[in-house]
TrEMBL record:
Domain of life: Bacteria
Protein name: ADP-ribose pyrophosphatase
Cofactor(s) the protein requires to work: Mg(2+)
Protein family per UniProt: Belongs to the Nudix hydrolase family. NudF subfamily.
Keywords assigned by UniProt, alphabetized: Hydrolase, Magnesium, Metal-binding
GO terms, molecular function: ADP-ribose diphosphatase activity; ADP-sugar diphosphatase activity; metal ion binding
GO BP: any one term: nucleoside phosphate metabolic process
PANTHER family tied to this protein: ADP-RIBOSE PYROPHOSPHATASE (PTHR11839:SF5), UDP/ADP-SUGAR PYROPHOSPHATASE (PTHR11839)
Keyword Magnesium: yes
Length: 378
């Protein structure tokens, strides 16, 4: 049996229970001569040497089994956290030898103070939801393979949380999702995207249940789109890029004109994603956002939910260029077109991207109002 001291996110008991599958015997303790701080540029903590009077609080997990340790190793090792021996001071003043996970990445540097309550408020829900998927791979993936999936798992977790908390239209004449009877779920592919084959029965409108059916879902995460609009110059910015969907379909020209778009990463709000993607894909700063709405672009097969925006910004002639994030292999060219040209493109078929068509039609309806909005700095 082994004692483990946790000083960071695993002090969240709900997360600890997900990782271990149960809550072990535990007591409060401290590392003397240490402080818990944020890793610079990250939301997770590290423990660093400090003055003898400083102490790093945590939980001493007592008498963990070999399976408990294997689960903790699986959760921690892929991120470069390995077990080290340490002396823990318990609340009653006794000293106990324990192990704790310390990062092996020398590039991690101390940042500002780290607070568990603040982390729980900002990142707790999405981390717990991500950990549920991560720990489902215990025994089937290596720790490194699981860690490589963490960013997309976090984005999927963010999507599931949004689906649960987003206000839905009141439709009292329909059954709840709990009325769907799932007999089996298979996952034949699981990387950046995921395929799920659900064998299920769903309620009929006549009150009965369907025969067993198989439905395959392409699991993509929530995403945002934003159409940049300059209300003074009356023009918009479009992005042009190669798209695998039209290419695989056989389209002779698999480059599409689109609004700026990107997935919502774990822990991000829609608006934070909009501003990040505007910087990455077009080098733009928006001074006002208008949300068009949220919708499922292809609910018969794809889980993706889109939140579309129009963003007010400045679009001088030199706002165009080449953009994209290198590690995502993006190759983006931006183009500026006047509002009248955009509407002509929508009518004659040059606009073939659904979110762009929706955004253009919304802009046509709201353009007069948007052109009267004052800039915050004027």
């Amino acid at each position: 049996m082994t004692d483990i001291f946790v000083f960071g996110t695993l002090r969240d008991l709900s997360l600890l229970e997900i990782v271990l599958g149960q809550l072990p015997e535990r007591r409060e303790g401290w590392l003397l001569g240490a402080r818990t701080v944020c890793a610079a540029g990250h939301d997770f903590p590290i423990s660093i040497p400090a003055a003898p009077s400083d102490r790093s609080p945590g939980l001493l997990l007592i008498g963990l089994s070999a399976d408990d340790i294997a689960r903790l190793d699986f959760y921690e090792d892929g991120f470069g956290y390995l077990r080290r021996t340490a002396t823990v001071t318990c609340a009653d003043g006794t000293l106990r030898q324990a192990q704790l996970y310390r990062p092996t990445d020398d590039a991690l540097r101390p940042g500002g103070p780290w607070d568990l309550s603040a982390w729980q408020d900002r990142h707790g829900a999405v981390t717990r939801e991500t950990a549920l998927e991560a720990m489902s791979y215990f025994g089937t993936l290596t720790s490194a393979e699981m860690a490589a999936l963490w960013p997309v798992m976090a984005a999927r977790a963010q999507s599931r949380l949004a689906a649960r908390t987003r206000p839905a239209p009141v439709r009292d004449d329909l059954p709840s999702r709990d009325a769907v009877v799932v007999e089996r779920t298979d996952i034949p592919y699981n990387k950046f995207f995921r395929l799920e084959e659900h064998h299920l029965r769903f309620p009929h409108f006549d009150g009965g249940l369907s025969d067993p059916v198989s439905r395959v879902a392409f699991v993509a995460v929530d995403a945002v789109t934003v159409l940049p609009y300059d209300p003074v110059r009356d023009r918009v910015l479009l992005v042009d890029q190669f798209r695998i969907g039209p290419y695989v379909r056989g389209d002779a020209q698999p480059w599409t004109l689109e609004p700026i778009a990107g997935r919502v990463d774990g822990g991000e709000t829609w608006e934070e994603t909009v501003h990040r993607e505007a910087r990455e894909e077009a080098g733009l700063t928006m001074w006002h956002l208008e949300r068009i709405g949220t919708y499922y672009p292809s609910p018969g097969a794809v889980t993706e939910s889109l939140a579309s925006y129009v963003g007010l910004t400045d679009l001088p002639d030199d706002a165009v260029g080449l953009f994209g994030v290198d590690h995502e292999a993006e190759d983006i060219k931006t183009r500026i077109v006047g509002f009248d040209t955009l509407m002509a493109m929508t009518r004659d078929g040059r606009v073939q991207n659904g979110p762009l068509m929706i955004s253009a039609l919304w802009l046509a309806a709201e353009r007069a109002r948007l052109r009267t909005l004052p800039r915050p700095d004027t």
